[in-house]
Amino acid sequence: MKIHPSLDSIRSKVENAERLSFEDGVALFSSPELLSIGALANIVRERKNGNRAYFITNRHINPTNICANRCKFCAFSKSSGEEGAYTMELDAILKAASDFQQGNVSEFHIVGGLHPDLPLDYYEKMLSALKEHFPEVHIQAFTAVEIAYLAKISNLSVENTLVRLQKAGLDSIPGGGAEIFNPSTRNKICPEKISGDEWLKVMQTAHQLGIRSNATMLYGHVESVEDRVDHLVRLRELQDKTNGFLTFIPLAFHPKNTDLDTMESTTGQMDLRVLAISRLMLDNFDHIKAFWIMVGPKIAQLSLLFGADDIDGTVVEEKITHSAGATTAESMARQTFIELIKETGREPYERDTLYEKLVKV
Ligand code: V47
Ligand code: SF4
């Protein structure tokens, strides 16, 4: 496809595999040429992942929604004792793990609130029981924010907390909690959350222990274009140091039932643009994932032509985005992934969390 001449200098950098600058990122967000941006992202996407498009058979579990933080963009969290607050006992977690395909999945993806009274022992028991019952399943659990909180209430360093969780069965860390790193914007949407610097430090510590992780960015709320580019550049800098990030996932803000519920939902244009620019800026990330639960299967499908190479997984149960008004289903069948991917001309690959075991389907 012919790239619009206004993007000539960026096109030339992309074609020569040169790193894009902060200013390039801002220019891309300001450009009206969405199709050209998508085509540029597609060059990088095909250079890194060819014609492959990935999905995974996974099961999400949200063990508790009780949270000490109460971020303004979050409709999932509750205070202790509030109507709808819950905490799953170990039995309920094991039941949830086995209720989809008898636990015959590739990954458990576990994220919850910052429960003030659940000790480290609760999380260790959860991990070791899941490993005992489902030894083959990769456990991707607890955002950097949950790990920092757990360390704080356990009077342990982040490193020691991670070592204990790793010993109990933690395999990798999901990318949540990154939100937007810029301190003044972060302060507007989640004043109680650890800072962007602290989030990055937890990830750096995890990567040094050999624990891989994902990274995310929450977009479509009060953030500026500069905030988005700054966020991507800071992730790219840490990736240069550790190479520990597996995948980047832009998370589309869902406003319903949140303190920011006067805001509009993101549009298809914005979703595709953020995915494409993420692909272009994060030259040292192997994978860009469109989380179909948040952007919907239709945008997730098109994203495969706009820089993304992954559309996540079967999920089964999802509470965070659905509390905030997501209208997607909570689960998608394996066959649907295959059909959505094939329709775009891509080749469907079922993957494991670490993109090591790839099965063409
Ligand atoms: O940190 C909370 C986000 C994250 C809303 O690693 C919201 O593959 C949109 O970690 N609208 C937690 N987003 C979820 C998470 C995650 C999700 C998908 C894939 C991966 C991965 C990780 O959910 C939070 C926050 O950024 N979130 N509320 C909302 N109203
Ligand atoms: Fe708690 Fe996470 Fe929701 Fe923030 S986003 S209120 S930390 S559950």
Short summary of the structure?
The chain is 43% helix and 14% strand.
How would you characterize the overall build of this protein?
With 361 residues, the protein is α/β, with parallel strands linked by helices. The protein contains 14 helices and eleven strands. The structure holds ligand V47 and iron/sulfur cluster. Iron/sulfur cluster (SF4) is lined by residues 67, 69-71, 74, 76-77, 113-114, 145, 190, 193.
Descriptive tags:
361 residues, alpha/beta, TIM Barrel, four-stranded mixed beta sheet, 14 helices, 43% helix, globular, binds ligand V47, binds iron/sulfur cluster
CATH architecture: Alpha-Beta Barrel
For the largest beta-sheet, the strand count, sense and barrel status come to:
4 strands, mixed
Shape: globular
Quaternary status of these chains? single chain
User: Would you report the number of β strands?
Assistant: 11
Number of domains: 1
Low-confidence stretches: none
**CATH-assigned fold name:** TIM Barrel
Q: What is the CATH top level name?
A: Alpha Beta
Distance between the termini: 29 Å
Number of H- or I-type helical stretches: 14
Largest sheet, order of strands side by side? Answer: 9-1-10-11
Mind telling me the CATH superfamily name?
Aldolase class I
Order of helices and strands: HHHEEHEHEHHEHHEHEHEHEHHEE
